[in-house]
C-alpha cells in the first residue's frame, strides 16, 4: 500500500495549463469515482486551487494509478501525454506525506506562509470524506496535516508580512499608477481574493472603488462591509469605459471580461487601463493585452512581486523543516503500526470468543451462581485474557515497525491461527471488526 501525491502547480505548469484542471466539486467526485472504480486507488483526495491541482491517493500499484490518471487527464481535460509528463510531479510515501504537510502549511505556496491553502486542503478532505472516498489512512493524515498547519501559523512568524496575490496585485497597481487616491477602480468578483485586494487598496488611499458581481446581493453586502459602491453585472461594460484599474477574481469557468467588451469600452475612453487578473481559470480574455492602452497582468506575472516580499517568510520556513520531518516520521510510525492492526484485532476477536465460550460453560455448570458472582467471574476471565495477550501484542507492535515487519506479522497470524480473519480485517472495506470495534483501536 503506497501513499502517492501527483499533481501540477504554479512552478511546473503555466496558467493556460492550470486552468484546464481547475476542477469543480462535480468533476472531483467524478474523477475519484473513476479512479476508485478502476481499482487504481483505495482512498483519494483531490485539491484544486488557482495555483495547483493535486491528486492524493492510497494505492496498491503506483504504475496503474499513474496510467489511469494520465488517461483521464487526456480524455476528459485535454491534457496531452506530453503535457502530463512535462508538468506533473509525483511524490511517494514519506515524500508524499511531507509534501502534503508543506502544502497545507503554506510552505509550498506561491505566497510562502499564506493561510488560504489551509482552508482549501481542509475543505478538499472533508468533501472527499463525504463522498466517501477516504478511509483510515487519509482520515488520519489530513487531520494531522491541518492540525500541524494551524500550530505552525500560531507558533511561528511564517504568516507575517502581507505577501498574498491580492497584495501583489495592489502593489503592482501602485507602482504603475502611483497613489490610488482618486482613481476609478472596478473590482470584479466578491470573493476572498477581492476582499483582500480592496483592503490593500484602501490602505493605499483608494476611495473610488466599485464592486461588480453576478449576484448583486453579494456585491451589495461586500460593498457595505468596506464602504464602497456596488453595481449590477449588467453595468460592467459601462464601468470598464471609465475605469483606470480593474481587478478580477470570480472563479468562473470562462473569462467574464471579453476582448470584445473591452474594444467597445475603449471607444469611450482616453486614459490607459490597467487590468489585473487574479483568477484561475482566467477571468479576463488574454487578447485584452493586445489592445492599445490596455495593460493586462495575470496571476503568473504577479509571482515576481510576491517573491520580492517573501525573504523573511522563506527564512522562517527553513526553521520549520525539522518540525515537518518529525511529523512525517510520526505518521510513518503510525502507518507501520496500522499494518499490524488487523492481526491484533483478529487475535482479540479469537481470544474473546474463547473466553465467552468458556464463561458460558461455567454458567451452565454452576447455575446456582447469583448475579454478583457471575459478574466477578466475567471480569476475572477478561482480566486473564488481557494479561495473556499483553506481551504478544506489545512485541508484535514493536516487531512490525522494524525491518522484516511484514514477515513478523505473517508469522504472528500463523502461530495463533488467525490468518484468514486478519486478511478479512485488512480489506479496504473492513473498517470495523466483527464486534463493531474500529480495527484502529487495536493499535491504540
Automatic annotation (TrEMBL):
During catalysis, the active site Cys acts as a nucleophile attacking the alpha-carbonyl group of tRNA-bound glutamate with the formation of a thioester intermediate between enzyme and glutamate, and the concomitant release of tRNA(Glu). The thioester intermediate is finally reduced by direct hydride transfer from NADPH, to form the product GSA. The keyword NADP applies. Catalyzes the NADPH-dependent reduction of glutamyl-tRNA(Glu) to glutamate 1-semialdehyde (GSA). CDD domains: NAD_bind_Glutamyl_tRNA_reduct. One of its GO terms (molecular function) is glutamyl-tRNA reductase activity. Residues 323-418 form the Tetrapyrrole biosynthesis glutamyl-tRNA reductase dimerisation domain. This is Glutamyl-tRNA reductase. Residues 7-156 form the Glutamyl-tRNA reductase N-terminal domain. It comes from Paenibacillus methanolicus. GO terms for biological process: protoporphyrinogen IX biosynthetic process from glutamate. Signal peptide: none annotated. InterPro entries: 4pyrrol_synth_GluRdtase (IPR000343), 4pyrrol_synth_GluRdtase_dimer (IPR015896), 4pyrrol_synth_GluRdtase_N (IPR015895), GluRdtase_CS (IPR018214), GluRdtase_dimer_dom_sf (IPR036453), GluRdtase_N_sf (IPR036343), NAD(P)-bd_dom_sf (IPR036291), Shikm_DH/Glu-tRNA_Rdtase (IPR006151). Belongs to the glutamyl-tRNA reductase family. The active site is at 50 (nucleophile). Residues 171-303 form the Quinate/shikimate 5-dehydrogenase/glutamyl-tRNA reductase domain. PROSITE patterns: GLUTR. It is an enzyme of class 1 (oxidoreductase). Its EC number is 1.2.1.70. It catalyses: (S)-4-amino-5-oxopentanoate + tRNA(Glu) + NADP(+) = L-glutamyl-tRNA(Glu) + NADPH + H(+). Possesses an unusual extended V-shaped dimeric structure with each monomer consisting of three distinct domains arranged along a curved 'spinal' alpha-helix. The N-terminal catalytic domain specifically recognizes the glutamate moiety of the substrate. The second domain is the NADPH-binding domain, and the third C-terminal domain is responsible for dimerization. NADP(+) binds at residues 189-194. HAMAP family: Glu_tRNA_reductase (MF_00087). The record marks 99 as: Important for activity.
Amino acid at each position: 500500500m503506497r501513499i502517492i501525491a501527483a499533481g501540477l502547480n504554479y512552478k511546473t505548469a503555466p496558467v493556460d495549463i492550470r486552468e484546464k484542471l481547475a476542477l469543480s466539486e462535480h468533476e472531483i467526485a467524478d474523477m475519484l469515482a473513476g479512479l476508485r472504480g478502476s481499482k487504481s486507488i483505495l482512498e483519494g483526495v483531490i485539491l484544486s486551487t488557482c495555483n495547483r491541482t493535486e491528486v492524493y491517493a492510497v494505492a496498491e500499484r503506483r504504475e496503474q494509478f499513474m496510467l489511469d490518471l494520465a488517461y483521464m487527464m487526456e480524455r476528459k481535460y485535454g491534457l496531452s501525454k506530453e503535457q502530463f509528463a512535462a508538468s506533473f510531479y509525483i511524490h511517494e510515501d514519506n515524500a508524499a506525506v511531507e509534501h502534503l504537510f508543506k502544502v497545507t502549511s503554506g510552505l509550498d505556496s506561491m505566497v510562502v506562509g499564506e493561510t488560504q491553502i489551509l482552508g482549501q486542503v481542509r475543505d478538499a478532505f472533508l468533501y472527499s470524506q463525504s463522498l466517501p472516498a477516504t478511509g483510515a489512512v487519509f482520515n488520519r493524515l489530513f487531520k494531522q496535516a491541518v492540525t500541524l498547519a494551524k500550530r505552525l501559523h500560531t507558533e511561528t512568524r511564517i504568516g507575517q508580512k502581507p505577501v498574498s496575490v491580492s497584495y501583489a496585485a495592489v502593489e503592482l497597481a501602485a507602482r504603475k499608477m502611483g497613489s490610488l487616491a482618486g482613481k476609478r477602480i472596478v473590482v470584479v468578483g466578491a470573493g476572498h481574493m477581492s476582499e483582500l485586494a480592496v483592503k490593500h487598496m484602501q490602505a493605499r488611499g483608494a476611495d473610488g472603488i466599485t464592486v461588480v458581481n453576478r449576484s448583486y446581493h453579494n456585491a451589495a453586502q461586500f460593498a457595505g462591509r468596506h464602504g464602497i459602491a456596488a453595481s449590477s453585472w449588467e453595468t460592467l461594460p459601462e464601468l470598464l469605459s471609465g475605469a483606470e484599474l480593474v481587478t478580477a477574481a470570480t472563479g468562473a469557468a470562462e473569462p467574464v471580461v471579453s476582448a470584445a467588451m473591452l474594444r467597445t469600452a475603449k471607444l469611450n475612453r482616453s486614459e490607459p487601463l490597467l487590468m489585473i487578473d487574479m483568477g484561475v481559470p482566467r477571468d479576463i480574455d488574454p487578447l485584452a493585452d493586445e489592445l492599445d492602452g490596455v495593460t493586462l497582468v495575470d496571476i503568473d506575472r504577479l509571482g515576481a512581486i510576491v517573491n520580492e516580499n517573501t525573504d523573511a517568510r522563506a527564512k522562517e520556513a527553513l526553521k520549520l523543516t525539522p518540525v515537518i520531518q518529525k511529523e512525517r516520521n510520526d505518521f510513518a510510525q503510525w502507518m507501520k503500526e496500522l499494518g499490524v492492526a488487523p492481526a491484533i484485532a483478529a487475535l482479540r476477536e479469537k481470544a474473546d470468543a474463547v473466553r465467552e465460550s468458556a464463561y458460558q460453560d461455567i454458567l451452565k455448570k454452576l447455575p446456582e451462581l447469583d448475579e454478583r458472582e457471575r459478574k466477578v467471574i466475567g471480569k476475572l476471565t477478561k482480566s486473564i485474557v488481557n494479561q495473556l495477550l499483553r506481551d504478544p501484542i506489545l512485541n508484535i507492535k514493536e516487531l512490525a515497525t522494524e525491518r522484516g515487519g511484514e514477515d513478523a506479522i505473517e508469522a504472528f497470524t500463523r502461530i495463533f491461527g488467525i490468518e484468514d480473519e486478519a486478511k478479512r480485517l485488512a480489506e479496504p472495506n473492513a473498517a470495523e471488526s466483527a464486534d463493531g470495534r474500529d480495527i484502529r483501536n487495536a493499535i491504540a
